[in-house]
Design goal:
The protein is 49% helix and 15% strand. It is α/β, with parallel strands linked by helices. It has three domains: 65 residues, no CATH class; 146 residues, Leucine Dehydrogenase, chain A, domain 1 (Rossmann fold); 164 residues, 3-Layer(aba) Sandwich (Rossmann fold), CATH 3.40.50. A seven-stranded mixed beta sheet has the order 9-8-7-6-10-11-12, sandwiched between helices. Helix 3 runs parallel beside helix 7, helix 8 crosses helix 9 and helix 14 runs parallel beside helix 15. One of its GO terms (biological process) is glutamate biosynthetic process. GO terms for molecular function: glutamate dehydrogenase (NADP+) activity; nucleotide binding.
Length: 460
Amino acid sequence: MQVSEQKSGVLQQSALEYIKATHRKIKDRNPGESEFLQATWEVFDSLQPVFEQHPEYVEEGILERISEPERFITFRVTWEDDNGIVHVNRGYRVQFNSTLGPFKGGLRFHPSLTGSVVKFLGFEQIFKNALTGLPIGGGKGGSDFDPKGKSDREIMRFCQSFMTELSRHIGPDIDVPAGDIGVGKREIGYLFGQYKRIRNAFEAGVFTGKNPDNGGSLIRKEATGYGTVYFVEEMLKEQGLSFAGSTVIVSGSGNVSIYAMEKATEFGAKVIACSDSEGYIYDPDGIDVETVKQLKEVERKRIYHYLEHHPNARFGNDKSEIWTIPCDIALPCATQNEIGRESAEALVDNGIKALGEGANMPCDDEAVRVLTHNQVLFAPAKAANAGGVAVSAMEMSQNSMRYSWTAEEVDAKLHQVMKTIYKNCMETAGKYGSPGNLIVGANIAGFKKVADAMLDHGLS
C-alpha cells in the first residue's frame, strides 16, 4: 500500500515539479559536479511538455534512470618518462547508457579532465548518439594526462599503461572508444596496438578514429567540423541565409576547428579568426587553412606561428577576446563553457546572426540565454557536432563488413545524417510547442528515442 501511494504521489506532481525534484536528487547525489549538473539541467529544462504527454516516462522512472550511469570506472595510470621518472595519472570511463547499442564516445587526454567533466560528456553523448539514428549508446572517458610537450615514446608508454586497464572494460559489442581533445590518430594507434597485444585478436571495431590504413574510415578526422557546418547551413537556409559571403570566427585549432574552417571556406565564407590555448589569430584577409593544418597537424606548433607566414595577421594572447571580433557566424569548437555572458553580449553587439556549437557545451547557460533572447540562430552541440560520432558508427559498420567506403561516399552519408538530424529537431520542436527552437528539439528528440527503447527493455 505504501509503495502504491508513493507512486501515485509522483504521478500527481506537475511535470515541472517532477523535473525539479529529480534534479535536486541528482544535485544531492553528485555534489560539486558543476559540469555534470549543468548538462543534466540543460536537457531537463526542455522536457516538461514530454512528461505532460507521456506520464508513462514518470511512472517508469526514465528520468532518474537515464541520468545515472550504468557504470563509472576510475583507475590509476602509471607510466615512466624519458628520464626514468615515474608519473601517476587518473583514468576514467563512464558507460552511461547502452539502450540503443554499445557504449560509444571519445577519450580525452587533458589536465582539466575530472569525473564531473567525463560524466557531462557521457550524458551529452547519449542524446547526440541517439540523434544520429544509428545503433550506438552513450559513453566517454579519458585521463588528466597532458600530451603537450611529451615525446612520442612517453605518449606511447602512457597509452599502453592506460589501455592495459581499459581493455578489460571495452570491446566491439560492449564499448567502442574514439578520440577527443588530446587523442588523435597517433594516440589511437598506440591504444589500439596495446589492445591487440592484450587480446591477441584484431578486433578493428573496438576503436574508431583509426588510421585509414589500419581499419579507419575516410572523412572521420573531418567529420565533426564538416558536420557542424552542414547542420548550420541547414539552419541558415531556413532563414534565407548562407555561409556564402559571411564572415566566420572559429575557436580552437584542432580537428573540429580546422575542418569546420575548411568546409565553411568551401561554402563561400571568409574565416577571419581561430585560436588555441595560448591565444588567437585574426587575419582580415581570411585564415589560410592549409597553413593552420601544417602548423597543427605536421609541426605541432602554437597558433602564433601563423604570423610568420602571414604578416598581415595579428595575434592576441587572451583567447577569450576572439569573440569581440565582429562576425556573421561564430563556431565555438574548442571546449566547454568557453563563451560566457560577456562574450555572448559582445557577439550580439557586433551583429552576429548565427552560432553553431562545434565543441561540447561551449556556451554556458547565461550565454545561451543572451544569444537566444536576441534572436541569434543557435545550433546546439548535441545536434550540430554529431557528425563525428555518426562517421564513427559508419567506421564500425565498415569494420564489421571488412570493407571501406570512398571519401565521397562517407561525406555524402554524413551530409545526409546532418540534414536528417536538423529536420528531426525542427519537427520535434514544433510538435512540443517550441517551433524553431533547436535546443528544445534536439533535447526532446534524443531523449524520446532513448526513453522509448528503455520502456521496451523494462527495468534495465
